[in-house]
Amino acid sequence: MIAILDYDAGNIKSVEKALNLIGQQTIVTRDFKEIKKADKVILPGVGSFGDAMEHLHKYELHKAIEETVADNKPFLGICLGLQLLFEESDETPGVEGLGILKGKVLRIPEAEGLKIPHIGWNSLNLQNNGRLFEGLNGEPYVYFVHSYYLKAEDETIVKATTDYGVNIHASVESGNVFACQFHPEKSSEVGLEILSNFASL
């Protein structure tokens, strides 16, 4: 059973739908007991960093996330869910992230010919043998929607990057914690393979 954390963020339903498509049992919940019982936990999300942190604290889900990570249970952050795992974001200065991983979330710099938010398909440069990307070859295309990007402090946890006017840390893995800036649930067959790799951990 995979628990999808419900903290009033967007995009939760499409993650649930994609996991059901690959035959996974899911529960969308903010109930501690349900989260504790789950084999794996996903923090999806579309929205703003500050509001999301406020909601995680309101429902005390920050504690559930810390417990999940401490219990060594596979945990996946998607899009905003990746950003929240880090220390801070340019989007909401002064608001602390979960700080489970070290790094900052920065605004994508303006550049000629680049639209912000970055919306669309980009290829990934895979590196450091990420378990989410097992069986994927070449430079797989995935779907992004974001105005802010991750710069992780420790580059050895970075498993995929992409370029959009700047080098973006698109996926990280540290122990039992995994995260993607892109949306695997909207990334067609490649995305479903990535979710299947997570489900089979």
Give the helices and strands, then pairings.
Blueprint: E1 2-5, H1 12-21, E2 26-29, H2 32-37, E3 40-43, H3 49-58, H4 61-70, E4 75-78, H5 80-84, E5 88-89, E6 103-107, E7 118-123, E8 125-126, E9 141-146, E10 148-152, E11 158-163, E12 167-174, E13 177-180, H6 188-199
Structure characteristics:
alpha/beta; three-stranded mixed beta sheet; 201 residues; eight-stranded mixed beta sheet; globular; Rossmann fold
Report what the structure shows:
The chain is an alpha/beta fold. It has a single domain, classed as Rossmann fold (3-Layer(aba) Sandwich). It has 6 helices and 13 strands. It has helices at 12-21, 32-37, 49-58, 61-70, 80-84, 188-199; strands at residues 2-5, 26-29, 40-43, 75-78, 88-89, 103-107, 118-123, 125-126, 141-146, 148-152, 158-163, 167-174, 177-180. The protein has an 8-stranded mixed beta sheet with strand order 2-1-3-4-13-12-11-8, with helices on both faces. The protein has a 3-stranded mixed beta sheet with strand order 5-6-10. The chain has a two-stranded antiparallel ribbon with strand order 7-9. It is globular. It starts with a strand and ends with a helix. The mean pLDDT is 96.
CATH architecture: 3-Layer(aba) Sandwich
Uncertain regions spanning at least 5 consecutive residues = none
Shape: globular
Please state the CA-atom Rg, rounded to the nearest Å: 15 Å
Percentage of residues assigned to helices: 25-40%
